[in-house]
TrEMBL record:
It holds the Pfam family PaaA_PaaC. This is 1,2-phenylacetyl-CoA epoxidase subunit A. GO terms for cellular component: cytosol. InterPro entries: Aromatic_CoA_ox/epox, Ferritin-like, Ferritin-like_SF, PaaA, PaaA_PaaC. The lineage of its organism: Bacteria, Pseudomonadati, Bacteroidota, Cytophagia, Cytophagales. Coiled coil: none annotated.
């Protein structure tokens, strides 16, 4: 069993001094031919560790990501919105199940992954450490956070590790419903009353920088992109995903009469790349390392959920005499 948490030394690990060169060459040739690597196949230790790190963080992002939207289920405006949001939040938790299962195929147990999350050893997406103050914040997440996630996940679903790719394919199908739901919610607010439009604009202002952070640090400083792209785990770099997101969604946001809170944002017609105000990467670092506006609250909620669900897990795993229900 691999149980090493997320402690990761990219410098020493990328040396791969201990790998059998012949096996490594065959492995890389398979990847080059576009074959999928399956759990029982030989793989370099670094490939395994990188996949565990990335899939595990992704799984945590799904369950933590359910929290800011989840708090809006009881306050969603109207029965249809409540139903749709409840289904979306359930889907996100289901995505975490698929992803934990994919990560488990690499040898790290789900219990260890959850422990590492609750002890603050594992990361999860920066974006879920911000509060959803208003209904418009929840709408922003459903539309644009899901949109960003699809850009990244659709690319990576064509990657090299079979279980992760299959999980991502299914997740993307569900996310595309979320996207339509979120877009519908945002259209409603952006074309509604003055108060609704203002509320939507303020949410966009709050979430724009975290959204730019969402795709990860710029390629020139990204630690893991090079090796992950070489082994086709990541199929697009952080900057490519960010650029694709801007290509697809800036026109849609502007079409709704909303203003993107970045006066420097423009597409350079020669390079075809978006130019923008560099988001504050020091803020990003703080947030992903546990010091964002909601990190403590998010983990506290997960800890309570874990403690409350313990008796159910015990009941499933152990004979009846060995567990105590909360009512006993
Ligand atoms: N947030 O070398 P880099 C969803 C970390 S959930 C936090 O570029 P990499 C949804 C990175 O881990 C979908 N940390 O990393 C759910 C690394 O730190 P460590 C979430 C980040 O791996 C519910 C360091 O910064 N999507 O859609 O090459 C409701 C250096 O970065 C972030 C995924 O998880 C970040 N944003 O690239 C609604 C996709 N960015 O590990 C919606 C899967 C970077 O060395 N993950 N870091 O300590 C990926 O595609 C890649 O891991 C990333 C980062 C593009 C995120």
């Amino acid at each position: 069993m691999y149980g090493g948490g997320n402690t990761f030394d990219p410098i020493t690990d990328t040396k791969q001094a201990t790998e059998d060169p012949q096996k490594l060459q065959e492995f890389e040739a398979r990847i080059e031919r576009g074959e999928k690597i399956e759990p029982s196949d030989w793989m370099p230790d670094l490939y395994r560790k990188q996949l565990i790190r990335m899939i595990e963080q992704h799984a945590h992002s799904e369950i933590i990501g359910a929290l800011p939207e989840g708090t809006w289920i009881t306050r969603a405006p109207g029965f249809k919105r409540k139903l749709a949001l409840m289904a979306k939040v359930q889907d996100e938790v289901g995505h975490a199940q698929l992803l934990y299962a994919a990560a488990e195929t690499l040898g790290k147990s789900r219990e260890q992954m959850i422990d590492d999350l609750l002890e603050g050893k594992s990361k999860y997406s920066n974006i879920f450490n911000y509060p959803a103050f208003t209904w418009a914040d929840a709408c922003f997440i459903s539309w644009l956070v899901d949109a960003g996630a699809i850009v990244n996940q659709l690319a990576n679903s064509k990657g090299s590790y079979g279980p992760y790719c299959r999980a991502l394919e299914r997740i993307c199908v569900e996310e595309s419903f979320h996207l339509k739901y979120g877009h519908h919610c945002v259209i409603h607010l952006a074309t509604g009353t003055d108060i609704q439009r203002k509320m939507m604009q303020e949410a966009l202002n709050r979430w724009w920088e975290p959204m730019m952070h969402f795709f990860g640090p710029p390629d020139k400083v990204s630690v893991h992109t090079e090796v992950l792209m070489k082994w086709k785990v990541k199929m697009s770099s952080n900057d490519q995903c960010r650029n694709q997101f801007l290509d697809m969604y800036v026109p849609k946001i502007l079409e709704l009469g909303l203003t993107i809170p970045d006066p420097l944002l423009r597409k350079n017609p020669e390079t075809e790349q978006w130019e923008y105000t560099e988001p504050d990467w020091e803020v990003f670092k703080k947030v992903i390392n546990g010091d964002g506006p909601c990190n403590e609250e998010r983990l506290a909620v997960r800890r309570v959920a874990e403690a409350r669900g313990k008796w159910v897990r015990q009941a499933l795993l152990k004979p009846k005499t060995e567990y105590v229900t909360p009512l006993a």
